[in-house]
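Support case: user asked for a sample of complex input and structure output to validate their parser. Sending the pair below.
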Amino acid sequence: AAGVIQSPRHLIKEKRETATLKCYPIPRHDTVYWYQQGPGQDPQFLISFYEKMQSDKGSIPDRFSAQQFSDYHSELNMSSLELGDSALYFCASSRGGGAGNSPLHFGNGTRLTVT
Amino acid sequence: DAKTTQPNSMESNEEEPVHLPCNHSTISGTDYIHWYRQLPSQGPEYVIHGLTSNVNNRMASLAIAEDRKSSTLILHRATLRDAAVYYCILRSNSGGSNYKLTFGKGTLLTVNP
């Protein structure tokens, strides 16, 4: 079965550079979530989109922005990168606006390293 | 967000059943109980979820207390591949911003050969 696809798998950037992470949800899933997981930490919610509109916002820095496109894929744009942004970034998708009865399906993440 | 409490770690032997407990005394009537697990260097993986009744699927069983203030994830025969961090998460069905999953401190399950 098709899963959530994230690209790239690994990304190395320098401080103050920008990065774009991409997420392709499972077909017919209309909701996308972004999570950040630092070393030894639990995943932290950043932002979510339902039907191309932002549906919820968590601890996402102002330097980050995201959007969901007409084909439901999503991109997380990160600017003025800092060393502390080094983390695993996960995307997840679900169906039906993310109602409590609908499980999230996660991708395998993008590992961002900022040097 | 309603909180859950899980043991930091548990240990099991291969081929034996594992019962992972979760307390959620402040659960509301619209909260679903979700379980996810995360293997090293992988994204979280959905395991099972339920509302009031016990649930079974190919991965596990979920036993929910009658008052819904606690639940137990049951792995019937642990394998080495089940070694992971297991997260018990309450997920509201009441709409809007409550749909996100909020990860707390899960249980690190170690499976001994």
